[in-house]
Amino acid sequence: MRLIALALLLAGSFQAAAQEAPSAAALEQAGRLYTQHCQSCHGAKRFGGAGPALLPESLGRIKADEVREVIRNGRPASQMAAYADVLDTAQIDNLVSYLYQPASTAPNWGDSDIRASHRLLADLDTLPSTPQHGADPLNLFVVVEAGDHHVTILDGDRFEPLTRFPSHFALHGGPKFSPDGRFVYFASRDGWVSLYDLHNLTLIAEVRAGLNTRNLAVSNDGRWVLVGNYLPGNLVLLDARDLSLVKHIPTLGQDGTPSRVSAVYTAPPRDSFVVALKDVQEVWELSYAGEPTFIPRRIQTRDVLDDFSFTPDYRHLLATSRKAKGGQVIDLDSGAAVIDIALPGMPHLGSGIYWKRNDKWVFATPNVSQGLISVLDLQTWKLIKEIPTEGPGFFMRSHINSAYAWTDVFFGPNNDAVHLIDKQTLEIAHTLRPMPGKNAAHVEFTRDGRYVLLSVWDRDGALIIYDSKTLEEIKRIPMNKPSGKYNVGNKIEFAEGTSH
Ligand code: HEC
Q1: Is 92 in the pocket of ligand 1 (CB under 6 A)?
Q2: CATH 2.140.10.20 region(s) of the chain?
Q3: pLDDT tens, position by position, 260-316
Q4: Which fold has domain 2-100?
Q5: For ligand 1, atom 3, which residue shows the shortest CA distance?
Q6: Is 96 in the pocket of ligand 1 (CB under 6 A)?
Q7: 3-state percent helix, strand, coil for the chain, nearest multiple of 5
Q8: How far does residue 41's CA lie from ligand 1's centre (Å)?
Q9: Higher pLDDT, 350 or 420
């Protein structure tokens, strides 16, 4: 996938260089083309419809060249048709520029829009409250298939799908579970939140909480869902039973500066949500204990935060800013910044994990700009080791019953490799190439840690199941870009070795 993206990028950059910035007239013409050819599916305000939202924020993760490519050639097995025979090259180039133009008035998505989007799809009161599928409810996997926007619910003992259903376009940030593991909550890039009943294998409710969403968190008492948005920059609080709107919380810094939300996670022992803000130097803690007000406690930080991870006791935050060359540690009790840590490789902290090494907690994180795994001592905050890998990684996983921490080589020519790091020696013990030439990524363990499920992130990819000790391949299920997979038991226990 990355190689293709890179090839397109190289092919496109030549053209982009030759091309001038579009004139106002060209943009206006592109606007008319949009109305004529695209609006029926992508919406009058580009908020989306049958097709995804096409706002600059929505297209932030894909490059202009990919957008051009999609318009020219369409997307296979979707309603997105090829326009190469309908529009000429200049028209397509202008359309691309048009889509990256910010809207003249900031797009709004208010309470009435949220309420109007709310749909109840099943009546919970009439559904059985026990699992109806015969599999172990705590060893199910929720598998997100990004290639064609589907979700598979997999029996984690037999490795057989129980069901498969379409999701909203581009699920974001990993699904989250109710504390009993019955319900799973999905957020999509375009702000759709879905509530799914794993006991009855049925969708319960949906709501569009924003136009561009980072992720969501579920409170540890199962009562609240908090959604973190880029557009509009705010938090949206939903009733976890049916996703009805409770209220939106504007994310304004102390001095009134509006901010987008980088990430929101629940901190179970603190009975609170912790929110990283993207545009102001604050972390927020919102308690949900008792009768909560959801008035944020503001913690000043030394930099804006892109992502963070908790220590095992949830006392400290390990946070990074993409701009800064390091990480900072924030004490959630005192609100003080404890220390800065040199982490030069742009760590993907949200995917970092911890384990016990010689009775001490260590924390390991992949880095997205350098091929190394950073390992920290969580007592001294010292960098113990940088483990060189075959390229920058994105995901890391382990299990208390496994001797290895698995990490991918997500970026670069060796992205078909995964490394297994010995959790005690901190050396690479094994390197696997599950499908040579294809991007091997995210892994997740079964609840007991005996098996590992690995994603090969390719259109002709697969979910591969390994014995976590012998590393023998048990099964291969073909899938279209299976991105993440989430084990219900590991997730609701916030198990060691899995990120939150
Ligand atoms: C019949 C409905 C339909 C029409 C008309 C349509 N699209 Fe799409 N478009 C879609 C769907 C559905 C997708 C999502 C495809 C997928 O699953 O990846 C999509 C995807 C896209 C994407 C990729 C977005 C992303 O984030 O990956 C772009 C860009 C896009 N369309 C642009 C256009 C433009 C420009 C036009 C008009 C020239 C247009 N589309 C017309 C349905 C449509």
Answers
A1: no
A2: 111-492
A3: 999 999 999 999 999 999 999 999 999 999 999 999 999 999 888 888 999 999 999
A4: Cytochrome Bc1 Complex; Chain D, domain 2 (1.10.760)
A5: 41
A6: no
A7: 15, 40, 45
A8: 7
A9: 420
